[in-house]
Amino acid sequence: MEEQRMMRRSVLLFLGLGCFLVLLLVCYRPVLFEDGQFAYRDAAHFFYPLHLRVQQEWAAGRWPLWDSGQNGGAPLLGNPMAAVLYPGKVLFCLLPYAWAARLYVIAHTIIAFLGLVAMGRSCGLSWVGSCLGGLSYAFGAPVLFLYCNVIFLVGAAWIPWGLRAIHRLLWQGRRQGGVELALVLALQALGGDPEAAYLTALGGAGYAVLLAVRGRSRLSWLATKPTMLAVVCIWVAATLGMARSRIAWPGFLAVNGLVLAAWMVVAVAMAWRWYRLPGEARLAPLLARLAAACTLAMALAAAQLAPVLEFTGLSSRAAGDTANDVYYFSLDPSRVVELVWPNVFGTTSPVNRSWLQAVPPTGDHELWVVSLYIGGLALALALVAAGFRCVPPWRVWLTTLALVALLGSLGKYGGPLWWARWGPFTSTFGQHNRLFQLRVDDLLPDESGSLYGVLALLVPGFGAFRYPSKLLPFSAAAMAVLAAAGWDRTTEGDAATRRLRRLGLVGLGASLVGLAFALAARGRAITYLTGRVPPDMVYGPADIAGAWAETQRALAHGAIVCAAVVALAHWAPRHRRGASASALLILAADLAAISHRITKHRMPFGT
Predict the structure, then answer these.
(1) Angle at Cα 191 formed by Cα 188 and Cα 193, nearest 5°?
(2) In whole angstroms, what is the distance from residue 373 CA to residue 362 CA?
(3) Nearest residue to 513 via CA among 562, 566, 584, 452
(4) The pTM is what?
(5) Pair 191, 86: CB distance under 8 Å
(6) φ and ψ at residue 411, rounded to 5 degrees
(7) How far apart are alpha carbons 553 and 343 in whole angstroms?
């Protein structure tokens, strides 16, 4: 009997790996079998020649220290994007450069999948659930699309491994978790994405705080009125702090210095309490483990970090001149619906078939990632497992991480003042609130009070980063692990099954209603949108008829996936093995239908 059970588990495991392999071939078919090369955005004109220059220096028997052909001379080792000392660059030494550039991207997709599976298994989840999460993360749009900016793909690929190491270090108390975390952080930094390393460690600090107050008696203070009042006061203070460029602060009041001093006071206070009351201290020991891992990571990456810090210290960002670019590529709140309906506003490339720019504020939408879709089944399962009450601490942590990263990615759109100016309707109703808008603009910028802005103000070093949408991989990783947990709960046949069924029915109903409306209003919608969508600087005028067809296709896709979710919710508790196999196949087909369009941007050079 035990042998049969092991055989069935092996079959499901091989099915999960088979789905992964099929998705890998579908998404990367153009570069594997058609002699294509990654070319979209920064892939061809920036990273391809930059990494080629690094390899030319290695091939010539020289350390890649300096590039004399760029800007009259520029450092290579001090350029974090060159990733000179990243161990993964060994591929470029073993293979012809064109093939190494292809496999470098594909290898990190594999690392992302395996890392999510390892994270799921570390949390005690099943192989099937972990594979579902791995497929969702590695081939979901927020991570897969990073192939066009490969250093961010490197950082995202190691995020699940970092979360796993944090979980093992802080929750399971395994010392080797600290070494694993140090290695992951060092690899992220060496790979060209120190921001991912910083945010991974910051997520670990949040987990430490959660574990320190995980008892109900300790969490009850969060719901008290004084605490809520304090939160509001802190938010207001942070909002005012973000306006320091508009308000003439007293000369002796340096906001950044005060923030750093405040954190130092907190650290000293925690260390003193740990010294005086070692048996009662909980947060300080956890943070000490995390700090030790971060210190080891910096030591491992010091050979590259030292010249990088010297070079970046000369940049305008280091000088604090970030007011104009720190909020680029904020995620528009309207795009959250893409989690359910992929490409519901259309697609911007390779042909401009998008009407997103007609959504207020008209023409003011910046796209970091072309889609947010992580798989309809994965999203529903993540919502099933997400929660804050009566769940293990790691699920609370991942739920919080998913929400904070998603809200932070809104950037300037997450601030109350942006919405106070009528938010997206400013361009439509600007005449009615012009006086109010002018008065507020005299004091505060749009981004004041946003979660991203608060983090930039209160967390040391956070303000040096750009592009709020870069937080999306952390939200995707957290939701992928929650999806794995959601599948395990669904197969148990408890309330999770009913919750999954309700989510599927709601999504199915909304998809069918939306599809009916899109079909009925097609002519009027095309007429209304024509001329209201400004042309794209790269892809030209918008094909509105094609864009509306994309909307109809997205709604139909959502309806099919939601119907499959309802069927799985009914079938999973009764036939676990069959439902598990079906879930893997459904998610793989769902992602293949969307993700292969993300990686089709290429150009025929490579040999």
Answers:
(1) 60
(2) 23
(3) 562
(4) 0.89
(5) yes
(6) 60, -125
(7) 9
C-alpha 372 chain-centroid distance = 9
Give Cα separations from 356 to 243, 289, 331, 332, 529 (angstroms).
Answer: 30, 46, 12, 10, 10
In whole angstroms, give the CA distance from residue 74 to residue 69.
8
Structure tokens at 360: 């207020």
Is pLDDT above 50 for 63? yes
pLDDT digits (tens, 9 = 90+) for 485-506: 999 999 887 788 999 999 999 9
End-to-end CA distance of the chain: 54
| H/E segment holding residue 74 | strand 74-75
| Residue 281, phi-psi category: left (phi > 0), alpha (psi -120 to 50), beta (remainder) | beta
Query: Which single residue is written with the structure tokens 């599948």?
Result: 487
Q: Which of 28, 292, 312, 62 is nearest to 192 (CA)?
A: 312
Contact 214, 326 (CB under 8 A): no
Q: What's the angle, vertex CA 527, arms to CA 524 and CA 531, rounded to 5?
A: 150
Q: What is the pLDDT of residues 14-35, one digit of tens each?
A: 999 999 999 999 999 989 998 8
3-state secondary structure of 353: strand
How far is the CA of 153 from the CAs of 109, 146, 407, 593, in angstroms?
A: 8, 5, 21, 21
Cα–Cα dist 178/205, whole Å: 13
**377-421 tens-digit pLDDT:** 999 999 999 998 888 999 999 999 999 999 999 988 887 766 665
Instruction: Report d(CA 132, CA 95) in Å as an integer.
Output: 32
The Cα 110–Cα 532 span in angstroms is 42
Mean per-residue pLDDT over the chain, rounded? 84
Q: Coil, helix or strand for 315?
A: coil
How much is the pLDDT for 221? Answer: 43
Residue with tokens 């904070």: 404
Place 362 in a pLDDT band, splitting at 50, 70 and 90: confident
DSSP letter string, 528-585:
HHTTTSPPBTTTBS--HHHHHHHHHHHHHHHHHHHHHHHHHHHHTTT-HHHHHHHHHH
Give the Cα separation of 143 and 476 in Å (integer). 8
**Which residue type sits at 136?**
S
Q: 454: part of which helix (H) or strand (E)?
A: helix 451-458
The enclosing H or E element of 32 equals: helix 29-33
DSSP percent split of the chain into helix, strand, coil, nearest 5: 70, 0, 30
- Would you say the C-alpha torsion 142, 145, 149, 151 has a positive or negative sign? positive
Amino acid at 288: A
Taking CA atoms, 255 is separated from 4, 244, 258, 259, in Å, by 65, 8, 5, 6
- Residue 118 CA to residue 160 CA, distance in Å, equals 8
Over 514-526, what HEC string results?
HHHHHHHCHHHHH
AA letter at 249? W
pLDDT of residue 239: 56
Q: What are phi and psi of 251, to 5 degrees?
A: -60, -30
Residue with tokens 């010294």: 275
Q: Read off the DSSP letter of residue 171.
A: I
**Residue 241 scores a pLDDT above 60:** no
